Amino acid sequence: MQVPLIARAKGERGLISQLLGPKYGAFMIMGSLGDSKIEPGLPPLSSIRQVYNKLENVNSDTKIFGVVSNPVGHSKGPLLHNPAFRQTGYNGIYVPLLVDDIKDFFRVYSCSDFAGFSVGIPHKETALSCCDEVHPLAQYIGAVNTIVRRPADGKLVGYNTDYKSFDIETKQESHVSPIAGKLFVLVGAGRAIAFGARSRGARVVIFNRNFERAKTLATAVSGEALPYESLNGFRPETGMILTNASVVGMEPNVDQTPVSKAALKSYELVFDAVYTPRNTRLLQEAAEIGAVVGSGVEMFIRQAIGQFKLFTGGLAPEDFMRKIVLEQF
């Protein structure tokens, strides 16, 4: 005898079985009345209402988008893209997708319902080989942070919106980048940032726990790779620029920092691509010693706007998206 059944997978990986249930015929979703730690994968109803407050409007025609990352719990993408979908009237939902093996993921999630993806750590380089086509800029950088399933033929097309989102603002009326000729120290293998710094005339030095990855990236941008252990002792000159593109300092490990406070005295500008929390320990200590600091929030906004345009094939509500981020993050 066949009996109607609603199945729910538990754990962080099972969260999408809750959020996408209405699309596939479930007449209800479940949530906890308190702390989600009581049962992982079962978030508080208050959280579901805040992020997915029109979940009752999800139907069989809803297109699915999500962030493919590991870890993924820190991502603020759902807080931004879901309100933007509602603002524009686009029938889409954006969900967190905890993925260990991105190639296996795309083999399983191959239907047209899954229309687009943000690609996060550590999958941006591997994602290149998962795409049927790759935009020339993403190919040049060697990393993809956005994948769109083309409606006409179902092919996966890879893009990189990180590259243009990385910029250091200056109030000087000059076409010369403020980082031109500067020694630019990059922590982590942030390919888009490394290429962006190089294109603006900086001298790039890369520190990464995986030294082979650091060397490969350094070669690609005509830079230099040095052992991660020597980072705090690297002080060849003053007035350097530091950018953290690693996960050090990201929630929940907010007490961590990639560079000691004493070593920060050699830098005049410190940028942290981490945006959760908005004001990391690295930025706090850099400000205390008098360096100019920059948060990853602006970079997140810019790359997300670029992604939203690719997801919907149209314009993004830029002012609205910026307001959402600045109010909620």
UniProtKB/TrEMBL annotation:
<dbReference type="InterPro" id="IPR006151">
    <property type="entry name" value="Shikm_DH/Glu-tRNA_Rdtase"/>
</dbReference>
<feature type="domain" description="SDH C-terminal">
    <location>
        <begin position="296"/>
        <end position="326"/>
    </location>
</feature>
<dbReference type="InterPro" id="IPR013785">
    <property type="entry name" value="Aldolase_TIM"/>
</dbReference>
<dbReference type="Pfam" id="PF01488">
    <property type="entry name" value="Shikimate_DH"/>
</dbReference>
<dbReference type="InterPro" id="IPR022893">
    <property type="entry name" value="Shikimate_DH_fam"/>
</dbReference>
<dbReference type="InterPro" id="IPR001381">
    <property type="entry name" value="DHquinase_I"/>
</dbReference>
<protein>
    <recommendedName>
        <fullName>Shikimate dehydrogenase</fullName>
    </recommendedName>
</protein>
<dbReference type="Pfam" id="PF01487">
    <property type="entry name" value="DHquinase_I"/>
</dbReference>
<feature type="domain" description="Shikimate dehydrogenase substrate binding N-terminal">
    <location>
        <begin position="67"/>
        <end position="147"/>
    </location>
</feature>
<feature type="domain" description="Quinate/shikimate 5-dehydrogenase/glutamyl-tRNA reductase">
    <location>
        <begin position="176"/>
        <end position="279"/>
    </location>
</feature>
<dbReference type="Pfam" id="PF18317">
    <property type="entry name" value="SDH_C"/>
</dbReference>
<dbReference type="InterPro" id="IPR036291">
    <property type="entry name" value="NAD(P)-bd_dom_sf"/>
</dbReference>
<dbReference type="Pfam" id="PF08501">
    <property type="entry name" value="Shikimate_dh_N"/>
</dbReference>
<dbReference type="InterPro" id="IPR046346">
    <property type="entry name" value="Aminoacid_DH-like_N_sf"/>
</dbReference>
<dbReference type="InterPro" id="IPR041121">
    <property type="entry name" value="SDH_C"/>
</dbReference>
<dbReference type="InterPro" id="IPR013708">
    <property type="entry name" value="Shikimate_DH-bd_N"/>
</dbReference>
